[in-house]
Amino acid sequence: MRMVFIDNVQRGMVTAQDIYRDSENGIPLVVKHTALTDFMISELMRYNIKFVYIDDVLTKQRFERMRQSTQRQIYVPKPKPIITTELRNTAVGDVKGLFESIRINPEDIHSSARIIRQLDSVVDRLVDSLTSNANTVVNINNLKSYDDYTYHHSLSVAVLSIAVGQYLNLGREELRALGTSAILHDIGKTAVPIEIINKTSKLSNEEFDIIKTHSPEGYEYLLKTMIGDENICAGVLSHHEKMDGSGYPNKEAGNHIHLWAKIISVADVYDALTSNRPYRMPMQPSEAVEYIMGGIDTSFDYDVVQAFVKKVELYPVASYVELSNDKIGVVLNNSNTFRPVVRALDTGEILDLYSDKSMRSVVIRRVVAEAEIKGN
After folding, report:
1. Do 261 and 250 meet the contact criterion of CB atoms below 8 Å apart?
2. pTM > 0.85: yes or no
3. φ/ψ of residue 30, rounded to 5
4. Which residues pair with 368 in a beta bridge?
5. Cα diameter, the chain
6. How confident is the model at residue 253 (pLDDT cuts 50, 70, 90)?
7. Closest residue by Cα to residue 26 from 149, 201, 195
8. How many C-beta atoms surround the C-beta of residue 365 within 10 A?
9. Are 222 and 140 contacting, i.e. CB atoms less than 8 angstroms apart?
10. What distance in Å separates the CA atoms of residue 267 and residue 164, rounded to the nearest whole number?
């Protein structure tokens, strides 16, 4: 074990100790025996971590495995993205324009209403893309960006919500309205002071109470802009309600919560958990789904969660994963959502994480960025 200053830390180095933000209290930023990625290193720098302790033995072993892996090129055709880059950029641009317009001039209802109407065509195209094939599943990684989180989050929640609604057999007009409600679910945050929205540390109780006003604020704003569809407004108002009645703003429970709010709630939490935030690193997709499944009947509706798991790709075909046995592999088949079939890059062997009994103790440690594979 040796101490390495953060400026000298390289991708692939393996940590020898847990790394904490301030002291050895709370949840570590990175746990020991983790192979550091470029993203992790940049985050540690952002948290003002000056140095880390590196396990040289494990680091040397990992670099050797990665070297062997990249000697074997395995081509797996990538499925065509559901949402094109052009549609994603248009959607994010329109949402950003709407939020900024409201912040600059909240009294200019006509301008905001015009932008909201522009979103109708975006939602139409999202519905067309997702309903073109009844068996389509969503790879949300294609939509993620660590820049402009709020606006990409709105798009991701809309895509996930439409996909769940499709599985629940909602009609086209219902899917359009659900998508509109989802893409506008956080519009009320324009009434929250920007310093609270952008705060990187834990919110105080008073600040969290202010955050909780965003759903009724959004509801009221939609009424002002004559977006008076009852279902759209209900989705915005109630997406933080919980099945056991412990949510906000009205402590609705069970069947009293609108279906669209239940759908948006699951999509909202999943995308938030799997996104990088100033106060924590993202969860792995399977961890986020496990968290959501653990909240069935307390926070989330059973039927909605079941539909969500059916429609979201945790490990897309042609993506790379690192296994708990330290192998790096490419996903060949993901018909089993949590336990895909993987081809090891170093040996080319097929690893069926579900059917092969010898693989039962092996789990997916993390999704590996394509740039990380090609960079080694």
Report:
1. no
2. no
3. -140, 135
4. 320
5. 64
6. very high
7. 201
8. 17
9. no
10. 9
